Automatic annotation (TrEMBL):
Identification of the protein by name: Putative ovule protein
Signal peptide: 1-24
Organism: Solanum chacoense
Domain FAD-binding PCMH-type residue range list: 74-204
GO molecular function, a single term: FAD binding
């Protein structure tokens, strides 16, 4: 077997910080109500919701905007930013977007320089995966479970901690999100030579 780790990718989603809802639209309210209804109170899911009324909304939105062309006041922005902390949060977010007919965009590392993951002319919810970034490397089986918000640099480092002869064939930029890279948005110098390493990916 080639000395390159197969990567098993666990796709998680993110939820958002709750804010005053005085100026909310009906669909906005129904989405938040749905989150609350389909989650356990102990999850505090609404604490992961950020709306334009929240003082942290702007900083959360801008944190992974890599192209300043889309960091302008005129750029269309999400109605809600959802930053989940656990897999169940992601499941609820997807469910509630479907139930309330909200457009969903998912951002991992924000390296889509066209702003595809965080810009839309249609009203949308931004699912920000940056808090879901655990990495579990199994050298014996040559696999790794990686959450969607982890960055390539973090993955490389965790592999290096376990082995000096294993690697994952991705790119040279350490801030690219694993989620976007693996689902087809990225490439690396070794991708063509070791492209078969992507075949055993399992999404959950």
């Amino acid at each position: 077997m080639e000395n390159s780790l197969f990567l098993t990718f666990s796709s998680f989603l993110f939820v958002i910080h709750f804010v005053p809802l005085a100026a909310s639209t009906p669909s906005y309210l129904s989405f938040l109500q749905c989150l609350s209804k389909h989650s356990h109170p102990s999850d505090h899911i609404l604490s992961r919701v950020y709306t334009p009324n929240n003082s942290s909304y702007k900083s959360v939105l801008q944190h992974y905007i890599r192209n300043q062309r889309f960091n302008r006041s005129t750029t269309p922005k999400p109605d809600i930013i959802f930053t989940p902390l656990q897999e169940s949060h992601v499941q609820v977010a997807v469910t509630c977007c479907r139930k309330t007919d909200k457009y969903l965009k998912i951002r991992s590392g924000g390296h889509d320089y066209k702003g595809i993951s965080y810009v839309s002319n249609i009203s949308f919810v931004l699912l920000d995966m940056s808090n879901l970034r655990s990495i579990d490397v199994d050298i014996q089986n040559e696999t790794a479970w990686v959450q969607a918000g982890a960055l390539l640099g973090e993955l490389y480092y965790r592999i290096w901690e376990k082995s000096k002869v294993h690697a994952f064939p991705a790119g040279v930029c350490p801030t690219v999100g694993v989620g976007g890279h693996i689902t087809g948005g990225g490439y690396g110098n070794l991708s063509m030579d070791y492209h078969k390493n992507f075949l055993p990916l399992i999404f959950s």
